[in-house]
């Protein structure tokens, strides 16, 4: 385990996204570290009223656009713009959400398969076919 624990100082959504990516590509399993950090944070919040260094640290998103105009010419060639990935969102959704989505999708397909035509639709189909027959 790393003594520095960098995930402790990251914003929760950034740390969770990082853990999801590392798990997807089987690089590391960081969710236990995130859980331990959450337990430590709860213990310090309820233990005393002092703010810990990780709570007062200035947070930033490491993928923010690079806006410094003078040094931009040195960084621009190596800078990669962050783009969210749909698979990351899928990884973070719970199994229950995915299951309910699958159920909803299958219910919609079943409803579409068994649509009963009402009288007006049947009448329109009959009249169209009769008009077609009259033309030929």
UniProtKB/TrEMBL annotation:
Supply one GO BP term.
transcription initiation at RNA polymerase I promoter
What cellular-component terms does GO give this entry?
A: nucleus
Superkingdom of source = Eukaryota
Which InterPro entries does the entry link to?
RNA_pol_I_trans_ini_fac_RRN3
Q: Which GO terms describe its molecular function?
A: RNA polymerase I core binding; RNA polymerase I general transcription initiation factor activity
Pfam families documented for this protein? RRN3
Q: Family assignment?
A: Belongs to the RRN3 family.
Q: Which PANTHER family match?
A: RNA POLYMERASE I-SPECIFIC TRANSCRIPTION INITIATION FACTOR RRN3-RELATED, TRANSCRIPTION INITIATION FACTOR IA RRN3
Record protein name field: RNA polymerase I-specific transcription initiation factor RRN3-like
Question: Per the UniProt entry, what species is this protein from, by scientific name?
Answer: Drosophila rhopaloa (Fruit fly)
Name the gene: LOC108040164
């Amino acid at each position: 385990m790393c003594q520095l624990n960098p995930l402790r100082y990251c914003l929760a959504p950034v740390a969770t996204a990082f853990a999801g990516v590392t798990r997807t590509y089987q690089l590391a399993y960081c969710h236990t570290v995130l859980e331990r950090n959450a337990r430590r944070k709860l213990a310090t919040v309820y233990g005393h009223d002092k703010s810990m260094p990780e709570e007062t640290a200035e947070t930033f998103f490491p993928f923010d656009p690079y806006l410094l105009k003078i040094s931009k010419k040195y960084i621009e060639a190596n800078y990669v713009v962050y783009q969210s990935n749909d698979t990351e969102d899928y990884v973070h959704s719970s199994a229950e959400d995915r299951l309910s989505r699958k159920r909803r999708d299958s219910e919609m397909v079943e409803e579409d398969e068994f649509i009963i035509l009402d009288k007006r639709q049947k009448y329109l189909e009959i009249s169209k076919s009769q008009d077609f027959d009259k033309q030929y």
